[in-house]
Write a structure and sequence with these properties.
The protein is mainly alpha-helical and 174 residues long. 69% of the residues lie in helices and 9% in strands. It has 2 domains: 81 residues, Arc Repressor Mutant, subunit A (Orthogonal Bundle), CATH 1.10.10; 84 residues, no CATH class. A 3-stranded antiparallel sheet has the order 1-3-2.
Length: 174
């Protein structure tokens, strides 16, 4: 795949942003390349285009597949596996958010619940600390519940809500 300077800029920036989000640079660059590609690409072409070791590409593709951001497909007459990224920005966002919730938020809520139960029977932990644990648990459960409700809202409605921004507060009142 021939990259234009703009495509290179996008891929390099996506790689940089990935590292800031806690994602490996190669994983992010491969995702960016596949997102920009009009057709599924085989791993060897990804490696050649980005100048990344083939083994690194394989590992990165597995990670992207585990996040459901990349799907494998086959091309008639070609025995190689080909890979394509989701192309809908909203679907990508929702996939990433769902994955992060599952990997980060859900275990944290579980840990906070355990801590809150343990704190009730713990006579050594100061009451102020117990209160902070309860507050954090309530906050995380509220955010998690809000997310569960919002993910069921149809995409067109979500887009309208986001475009409303702070104006949505008019409908809620003070």
């Amino acid at each position: 795949m021939k990259l234009t300077p703009m495509m290179e800029h996008y891929i390099l920036h996506w790689g940089e942003m990935g590292t800031r989000w806690g994602v490996n640079r190669s994983v992010s660059q491969i995702h960016a390349l596949l997102y920009l590609s009009e057709k599924p690409l085989p791993a060897d072409e990804i490696a050649e285009t980005l100048g990344i070791a083939r083994s690194n590409v394989s590992t990165s593709l597995k990670e992207l597949q585990s996040w459901n951001l990349v799907k494998m497909s086959h091309v008639l007459g070609d025995r190689r596996d080909h890979f394509a990224a989701q192309s809908d920005s909203w679907d990508i966002l929702m996939t990433v958010v769902e994955g992060r919730k599952h990997r980060e938020i859900d275990p944290t809520v579980s840990m906070l619940r355990d801590c809150a139960v343990e704190a009730e029977q713990d006579k050594e932990t100061p009451e102020a600390v117990k209160e902070r644990i309860r507050d954090m648990l309530e906050f995380m459960e509220t955010m998690s519940g809000w997310y569960e409700q919002m993910r069921k809202v149809p995409k067109p409605t979500l887009i309208k809500l986001m475009k409303l921004g702070a104006r949505v507060a008019k409908f809620v009142g003070k």
